[in-house]
Amino acid sequence: MTKYLTAILTKEDDMFAAFCPELDIASQGKSVEEAKSNLAEAVELFFETASKNEIEERLKTDIFISPLEVAIA
Q: How confident is the model over 6-25, as pLDDT tens digits?
């Protein structure tokens, strides 16, 4: 079964951080591809080892990503 989730990637110094907001799981890597691959591995491991109850408690299905406009003094 394939599940489609969100990966948010940011550059932090010489590494890339990857975050899945639906499960609150993060990982990192030396490249975007490595960070995304490491995140996928972490998420797959979570689904393999977590109980059904833990998955239901952590899995957020209403994730909205939107631009945010703020005034900066």
A: 999 999 999 999 999 999 99
Is the pTM higher than 0.85? The answer reads: yes
In DSSP notation, 30-72 reads SSHHHHHHHHHHHHHHHHHHS-HHHHHHH--------------
> In the chain, where are the structural domains located?
8-58
Closest CA to 23 of 37, 73, 3, 70: 3
Could you give the CA distance from residue 18 to residue 1 in angstroms, rounded to a whole number? Answer: 22
Neighbours of 47 (CB within 10 A): 12
Nearest to 36 by CA among 5, 2, 1: 5
